[in-house]
Each structure stands twice: as structure tokens, then as C-alpha cells.
Design goal:
The complex is a heterodimer of chains A (322) and B (269). Chain A is built from 14 helices and 2 strands. In chain A, strands 1-2 form a two-stranded antiparallel sheet. Chain B is mostly helical and 269 residues long. The longest helix of chain B has 34 residues. The chains are: A mainly alpha (322), B mainly alpha (269). At the A-B interface, helix 2, helix 3 and helix 5 of A face helix 3, helix 7 and helix 10 of B.
Chain lengths: 322, 269
């Protein structure tokens, strides 16, 4: 009986030693191997995943994002297929829970910057913006990607201005939006939005100094753009400098630039700007409206813009901001 | 009425002595710890993740109780004919079924209460010091409403389970059909939308008919799912919620009525 007990203890010790020896060998063996984390995600369309997740959609979205986070956290260099799998995981997580802030913030950080897929990031940001009307950041990031990565000023200005409409959004957003709208050749449109924004901010009791200043600058740009267009219509060429507008009798006086600098003019494209900050890409957009003959004296030409501005203001007062 | 109370009490006492309740308590503790670990892995909207995990665990444990304790036990009792012991007392068949349903509802309520308390505590711990990441519109009243809707969905599944037990004669068949009904009920709305939105499928009259009929047979569990709304504090229309509650109660009532009808025609001898 005693012998059996001793044998039993010995058997246990032998098994334990065997296990430890084998365990150490396996550990050593695997340490030498090149380890690489894999991420294929779930190769399912978001709709199928929605149907499968049932009532655990939120939890499934959390799980997918945790998977992406762990994979990215491994600090590996990802190939195209892996980035596509990550992008798909974001799409799936958003289909399961379109409200989650973590999804769009991670997509912005990873897809736009690291994966060179800004358009995928914009798609996710726009969907997040649709579901999060209280959140200005999704719209702001979409605008940033459209401007910085995709060079689409029109879309960027729209995104910034939509972000600006969200209560408690930073004061700079309408200004940014209007700048890009103007750069994309839609000064009048930018002005309409700024007038609307001004009205909203005044109603909210927020500070409006910068918006008012930007409005004044854009009103000046609009006057100059139209004068430049008129000049081209008369002479068939862009003026060499803005002073040519005076000599040709299109303009009698320059509008005041609220930023205290001179108006800037590009004689190759006819574009007018109120400051020296330029869009970082080489594409410079023209004034963006049809050149047509308006006629009239130079004084009349300048003062004739006031009704246009009044008309724009009136349309905003009537609720038409388009 | 006395018969119903008698059976309900018996079912409740029998259930809380069952090992499944221990499993639920273990789950509650697991949830409490898991929520702290899981939420710490997220940087933004930690509160949302805590609500997700909390309410999902309530749902999951409710499902386990229904499958393994409620419907499983009832089906086994019928299969083994141990139901005679109860029916030999002054209890009608309808009282037995309704009493079993009420008793199991009480078990589900007790379990959901414990788990919800754990969910609330784990939420509080998870967001401690991270109050900024609690979704803007989050409110405990909406959390409570979402929990109530979830419990109602569990009651609906339980009623359907009792009906399936009465219609079939085998425990395995009843549980399998109930599982299918649960999966279909969860995905029905998504499938309906997808199938009917696609022109090729939407124009197929047979498929359209099948999808529409299925929508009347299987309960639409998506309608009871307010987890996302609770997690983000999304405003909800009380009238809409009242209709969902009425839908659930009507489904329970009709399922139990059918179950009583089927059970009364069943040959037990």
C-alpha cells in the first residue's frame, strides 16, 4: 500500500517534470520564430453581420474595434490587404453601431493618415456625422480630409460649415469653411453661409467679431472678383494688377480689407484673395462664375454691388442659405 | 387564480434551487470584472461600452435561464411525465401553464435585477474619473426603460418556448425550434429590409410573401432592443415604446392562449 502511494507520487513528479521540460522546449522553440499578428477580420458584408449579431450589435462592434486595436498595437508594418481588412472592420463596426465615437476617431487616425485611404475615412466620418447630430468633430475631420488629402475644397467647405452649425462648435469653423468655399470659387456661397452663421450666433449670444470681419473681407473679394470678371469681359484678358480695374474704369475705389493688408491678385487665373495664406496645393481656382457684360459707369459699377450683397443678406433672412 | 399562484411559487422555488442560478451569479461577478477590463481598453465613450456589456450580459443570462431552466425543465417534465405530480393537485392544465410562465418570469426578474445592479455598479466603476466620456444624453431612466424592454423580450421568448413545448413532444425539438425562432426573430427586421429593398427580391411575390408571413409568426426581437439608445442616451418616442410594449404583451398573451389550447388537447396518459 505504501509502495503504491510512493509510486503514485513519483508518477506525478515524473509527469510534472516531463511537462516542464516540454514546456520550456516549446517556449524556446517559439521564441526563435518570427511572430506576426494576423488580422483578416470577418469576411462578411456588414448587412450579414448585422443580421447575425442580433441583439448583441453593440458588443460585436466593441469586439471588432478591440481586434483592430490589438492588431495595430502590435506595431507591425501592414500591407495593403491588411489595411483593407482593417478598413472593412471599421465599416462592419459602424454598421453594427453607427454612433460609436471610437470607430470614426480610429478610422480617421488610421485610414486617413497611415493607410492612405482618406476617402474610406471620409465615408465613415460622414456616416458618423449623420448619426451624431450633436458632434461637430466627425464633420470637421471629414472636412479636413477633403481639404488636406483629397483637395476637394468645395466638399471641405461644406463639411466645415456643417460642423460650424453644431451648437458649441469652435468659432473658427465657419471661418475655415468660408475660406475654402472662397478658394473653390464660391465666394457668394461662402458669404451666404457666413450671414446665416452670423444670424445663428447672434441668436445664441455667442461672439461674432471674427465672423463679421470675415464677412467684410469676403464682401470685398466678391466685389473685386466681379470687377475682374467685368474687366476680362471688356478687354478679353485678366488685369495685370488690381489697379488696372481703376484705370479701365471698372472700379473707382477698392473696398476696405478688414485684415489691414492689401488685396492679393493672381493675374494668371484672375483669383482674388484677402490675405496671403494660400491653399497648400498648386491648383488655383478661378473666380468660378460666368463672365458677363454688366455695363455702367465705374462708380455705378462699385455701388451696384451693394444691392447684390443686400440680396444675398435678404435671402438669408428669408431662410434660404443655399 | 390560486392554482396559478401555487404553480408559480413551486416553479420559482424549484428554479432558485437549481444550479443554473449559481451560474447566473457567477456571470454577474464575471460581468462586474469584465466590464472594468473591457472598458479600460477603450479610449472614447467608455460609458457606452459599459452599458453595452452590462445590458448584453443581462440578455445573455436571461437566454440561458430560459433555455436551460425554463423551457428545458418544462419539456423534460412533460417528456418524463413528472408533470402528473402537479396535475394531480387541484390545478387545471391552463393554470399549470400560466403558473409555470409566471414563476419563470419571477426567476427572470430576480436574475435580471441582480445582474442589472452589477451592471450599474460596474458602469459606475468603469467611468469613475472619466465622466467626460459618458455619452451626453445618457440617463438612468432610459437605461431602466431599455432594461425593461429587454426583460419583456425575454418574457416573449419564454411564452414562445412554452408554446413550442406544448406543440412538440420532445425536449430537443422544442429547444431547437426555440433557438431557431430566437435567431430568426433577431435578424428578421434586417433580412426583411434587405430582401424587400432589393428590386430583384422585392419583385419576387413568393419571397415577399414568405418574408411578410414570417414577420407575423416570429416575434420581432429587434423592436425590443434599446441598448444603443440607452448607451448613447438617444431620445425615444414614448408612444412608440408603448406600442412595442403592447406588441410584446399581445404576443405573450396569444402564445400562452395557443399553448393552453394545444396542452388541453394533448394526451398525457
Amino acid at each position: 500500500m505504501k509502495l503504491r502511494k510512493i509510486l503514485f507520487v513519483f508518477l506525478g513528479l515524473a509527469l510534472l517534470s516531463g511537462y516542464m521540460a516540454a514546456g520550456l522546449a516549446v517556449q524556446e522553440q517559439r521564441q526563435g520564430r518570427m511572430h506576426r499578428f494576423q488580422f483578416d477580420g470577418l469576411n462578411l458584408p456588414p448587412l450579414a453581420l448585422q443580421a447575425l449579431a442580433g441583439e448583441f450589435k453593440g458588443l460585436a462592434a466593441d469586439y471588432l474595434l478591440l481586434g483592430v486595436q490589438s492588431f495595430i498595437g502590435s506595431n507591425q508594418v501592414l500591407d495593403r490587404a491588411e489595411w483593407l481588412a482593417v478598413a472593412r472592420a471599421f465599416d462592419q463596426a459602424q454598421a453594427l453601431d453607427p454612433y460609436f465615437e471610437q470607430t470614426y476617431l480610429m478610422a480617421q487616425g488610421l485610414l486617413a493618415w497611415s493607410a492612405s485611404m482618406p476617402e474610406r475615412a471620409v465615408r465613415i466620418l460622414r456616416k458618423a456625422a449623420e448619426h451624431r447630430p450633436w458632434d461637430w468633430r466627425a464633420r470637421y475631420y471629414a472636412g479636413f480630409n477633403q481639404y488636406y488629402f483629397l483637395n476637394d475644397y468645395q466638399a471641405a467647405s461644406e463639411s466645415f460649415l456643417q460642423a460650424a452649425k453644431v451648437p458649441h462648435s469652435p468659432e473658427i469653423l465657419p471661418v475655415l469653411g468660408a475660406r475654402l468655399a472662397q478658394k473653390s470659387g464660391r465666394t457668394e456661397w461662402a458669404l451666404r453661409l457666413l450671414y446665416a452663421m452670423l444670424k445663428e450666433k447672434e441668436t445664441e449670444g455667442s461672439r461674432t467679431d471674427e465672423i463679421e470681419r470675415r464677412i467684410k473681407a469676403l464682401e470685398g473679394v466678391l466685389v473685386l472678383e466681379r470687377s475682374v470678371a467685368d474687366f476680362k469681359n471688356r478687354t478679353g484678358a485678366w488685369p495685370q494688377e488690381l489697379e488696372d480695374l481703376m484705370s479701365e474704369g471698372v472700379l473707382v475705389a477698392f473696398p476696405e480689407n478688414p485684415y489691414g493688408t492689401e488685396w492679393l491678385f493672381n493675374p494668371e487665373t484672375g483669383a482674388v484673395s484677402f490675405d496671403r495664406v494660400e491653399i497648400r496645393v498648386s491648383t488655383v481656382h478661378g473666380p468660378g462664375f460666368e463672365v458677363n457684360d454688366q455695363g455702367g459707369s465705374s462708380l455705378g459699377r462699385f455701388s451696384s454691388w451693394t444691392p447684390i450683397l443686400d440680396e444675398v443678406r435678404a435671402s438669408v433672412r428669408n431662410g434660404n442659405t443655399n | 387564480m390560486n392554482g396559478i399562484i401555487l404553480v408559480a411559487g413551486l416553479t420559482f422555488r424549484q428554479a432558485i434551487r437549481h444550479k443554473a442560478v449559481h451560474v447566473v451569479l457567477a456571470l454577474a461577478l464575471g460581468l462586474f470584472l469584465a466590464n472594468l477590463v473591457i472598458t479600460s481598453s477603450f479610449t472614447w465613450e467608455v460609458g457606452k461600452v459599459a452599458v453595452d456589456v452590462g445590458l448584453s450580459t443581462v440578455s445573455l443570462s436571461g437566454l440561458l435561464l430560459i433555455f436551460f431552466l425554463g423551457v428545458g425543465n418544462l419539456a423534460a417534465d412533460l417528456e418524463r411525465r413528472s408533470v402528473y405530480m402537479v396535475l394531480s393537485r387541484p390545478v387545471t392544465r391552463s393554470q399549470f401553464l400560466v403558473g409555470t410562465f409566471v414563476g419563470m418570469c419571477l426567476v427572470l426578474l430576480a436574475a435580471a435585477g441582480i445582474l442589472a445592479l452589477c451592471a450599474v455598479l460596474s458602469f459606475k466603476f468603469s467611468v469613475m474619473g472619466k465622466e467626460a466620456w459618458v455619452p451626453m444624453g445618457f440617463s438612468w431612466s432610459l437605461f431602466g426603460l431599455a432594461l425593461a424592454m429587454q426583460i419583456l423580450a425575454l418574457f416573449v421568448l419564454l411564452a414562445l418556448g412554452i408554446l413550442l413545448v406544448c406543440l412538440t413532444s420532445q425536449q430537443f425539438t422544442a429547444l431547437f425550434l426555440l433557438f431557431l425562432a430566437y435567431v430568426i426573430g433577431q435578424s428578421l427586421e434586417t433580412v426583411q429590409k434587405a430582401a424587400l429593398a432589393r428590386t430583384a427580391l422585392g419583385e419576387n411575390p413568393v419571397l415577399t410573401w414568405v418574408v411578410k408571413v414570417a414577420g407575423w409568426i416570429f416575434p420581432n426581437f429587434s423592436a425590443f432592443d434599446y441598448k444603443l439608445a440607452a448607451a448613447y442616451g438617444l431620445p425615444q418616442d414614448p408612444v412608440q415604446m408603448a406600442w412595442v410594449a403592447a406588441y410584446g404583451l399581445a404576443y405573450i398573451g396569444f402564445s400562452l392562449w395557443l399553448a393552453v389550447w394545444a396542452f388541453s388537447r394533448r394526451e398525457l396518459s
